[in-house]
Design goal:
Blueprint: H1 2-12, H2 16-38, H3 42-64, E1 66-74, E2 86-90, H4 95-111, E3 121-132, E4 137-140, E5 149-152, E6 157-167, E7 170-180, H5 191-206, E8 209-217, H6 224-234, H7 238-251, H8 256-268, H9 272-285, H10 289-312
Parallel strand pairs: 2-3
Antiparallel strand pairs: 1-8, 3-6, 4-5, 6-7
Helix pairs in contact: 1-2, 2-3, 4-5, 6-7, 6-8, 7-8, 8-9, 9-10
Length: about 325
């Protein structure tokens, strides 16, 4: 059925973007219907919906433009330098908290950014426990007045806890955490795996690192050099991409998207002043929230990279 719809849309509807939208909407409802049958847990169903929406959004953006991979430095939530001593302290001392403390020690060793020996910084675990959520169920109403039948599923365990970071007795970070533990076919899961996910998410906030994000350049059918330039940048050939986009501007000096791409190239070279000028020019030629947001992103990226650079040196 999906294939037949795809052939019909390709034959009757003009435009690559519109064909992609129709196909992905059909895919969304198909997977949603399948998920509603396979998953009777409300939280699991919400996760499935988030995954589907993310995939559909990424596919739509890909259909509307050329995806360009960018990199930047993300600062930590706490301003501690590389090699600072961080001690993991279990303030509860139960089975769950001990497993979580071990997971944090392993994650800190894996990241290699902080040292683990007694010092002025303490990562403290408070109120760590596993809580069972109320069981979910549904009622089937029969037409002929039979009594209601309630089908109960197993309770969903939640790993809960509070993580604080103390520096010389002063709290510099706090995170309340509550996450459902995914269940296997036997309705059980290793506590260790849940603790590893917990520790990885928290340490991602506490450790500066290089991250990847994506920007999209919309091709111009009347100016093929612009798409060629964007595709060159998408594979990391920035120098060739700059030459091609300059050719595109010679063909159409008022192409706002070409100036936007030059702004991305300048940002990749960390020439933020030139990047701002290109984004200003693009917005002047065609006012768009895309270009205005790019200017704001430049200011945010400069601030974050300066902070992350201080933390990492």
């Amino acid at each position: 059925m999906g294939y037949a719809l795809w052939v019909f849309v390709n034959g009757k509807v003009a435009g690559r973007t519109l064909r992609t939208v129709v196909f992905l909407l059909f895919l969304f409802f198909s997977v949603y219907s399948w998920g509603s049958v396979c998953y009777n847990d409300e939280r699991s169903m919400k996760r499935l919906i988030h995954i589907i929406v993310g995939c559909v959004g990424a596919a739509l953006l890909s259909a509307c433009g050329v995806q360009i991979q960018m990199q930047t430095l993300k600062p930590a939530e706490i301003d501690l330098g590389r090699g600072a001593a961080m001690t993991v302290c279990d303030c509860v001392s139960n089975h769950a908290s001990r497993a979580l403390a071990d997971a944090f020690r392993l994650q800190i060793a894996k990241d290699g950014f902080y040292a683990q020996y007694p010092g002025d910084v303490r990562l403290e675990l408070h109120n760590v426990y596993i809580k069972d959520a109320p069981p979910h169920g549904h009622r089937d109403r029969h037409k002929h007045g039979e009594r209601k039948h309630e089908e109960k599923s197993h309770p969903t365990p939640y790993l809960c806890g509070v993580v604080t970071v103390m520096e010389r007795g002063r709290q510099i970070y706090r995170r309340d955490y509550r996450e459902s533990i995914w269940l296997d076919s036997k309705d059980r899961m290793q506590l260790r795996e849940a603790c590893e996910d917990f520790a990885e998410e928290i340490m991602d906030e506490l450790t500066p690192r290089q991250v990847t994000y994506y920007e999209y350049v919309t091709p111009d059918e009347t100016n093929p050099a612009l798409e060629q330039a964007a595709r060159a940048c998408s594979v990391g050939n920035w120098a060739n991409g700059k030459q091609l986009v300059e050719n595109a501007l010679r063909q159409n000096p008022n192409c706002a998207e070409a100036y936007y791409l030059l702004g991305l190239i300048a940002r990749n070279d960390r020439e933020f002043r030139s990047s701002d000028n290109y984004f200003y020019r693009a917005n002047a030629l065609r006012a768009s929230s895309k270009y205005a947001d790019a200017l704001q992103d430049n200011a945010r990226l400069q601030q974050n990279e300066a902070r992350a650079g201080w933390q990492m040196n």
